[in-house]
Amino acid sequence: MSKYRNLFCSALVFGFISSGTAIAQVQNQTQTTLPHVAVLATGGTIAGTGASETQTTGYKSGVLTADVLLKSVPSLGKVARVSGEQVSNVGSENITNEILLKLAKRVNTLLAQPDIAGVVITHGTDTLEETAYFLNLVVKSDKPVVVTGSMRPSTAISADGPSNILQAVTVAASPTARGRGVLIVLNDRIGSARYTTKTNANTLDTFKSSDDGFIGTLIDQVPHFETAVAKLQTTQTPFDVSKLDSLPEVDIVYGHQNDGGYMYDAAVAHGARGIVVAGVGAGSESLLTLPSIKKAVDKGVVVVRSSRTGSGYVPEDSAYIGLLGDNLNPQKARVLLMLALTVTNDPARVQEMFQQF
Ligand code: ASP
Questions:
Q1: 194-220 pLDDT per residue, tens
Q2: Is the CB of residue 45 below 6 angstroms from any atom belonging to ligand 1?
Q3: Can you tell me which residues form the catalytic site (predicted)?
């Protein structure tokens, strides 16, 4: 009897061990069949820490590293195989052209690897849209690239970083996100880098897709895309960062009442090759600034008119000087003008690019 009991026990133990091994094998298979998403961390509030769970201003940006960020979201393991890399660890007000180029080159290298399904960039929200639009113009792949951030530091109550990382990785791992250009994903929304902008200095729902709306939403962690962007992006642009070690200087001059020309003179004296006018209304320029803007253009500086209102198009108007910035806000117009000037100095060709991209 005891012999049979022993046999029964060994069968049971063997059964447990073999089914345990089988479960582990299935888990490993699931793990290895999941898409590989590379996460590049650059800093910002998403990697920030505060002194208490109620501190949501005055905290320190760019403290946590990529590995710590990824470990804070255990459910990532169900969505993708993720690997983390640190590109920088700064508040996004300190993202320089050098960091932009380093990031873009790394994104292109990763996307060229067959095993990489998509890339996520964690970033400070203040200039997130500039990096996203830059990548939208220079990434040479149809694979998803998603930029995310958070409004609350990691230590805050209801910190939005972990959920935004999970959503960004989910979108980057999704084949439905391919060919849509660089995406900005925060707060359940999927926006195109071309149109999405930070609109509020403090609130969680700060990112809005002005005029043209978000292109998708995440429901129960499933991305739903509704629209596509008609402007050309990624593989459809002529910009090649692999050949670039620096970007031309482009400055933004902000329009206001009693505006003088000296900010334009200073930009030209500093060596600007391009100037974006953040004009009032639909890109209007004050009479007091026109002589300086004309001097800049005569020296070969490419001037582009945009609007400081935050949305809307800049129309042709012979009263003012400069190319038309389409409906790009001043900071995104600067990104496109920098890249345009890496390819051409011809104002007609630059104007064409403002219509295309
Ligand atoms: N100052 C921070 C940054 O842009 C703000 C944020 O991430 O929300 O890096």
A1: 999 999 999 999 999 977 789 999 999
A2: yes
A3: 45, 125
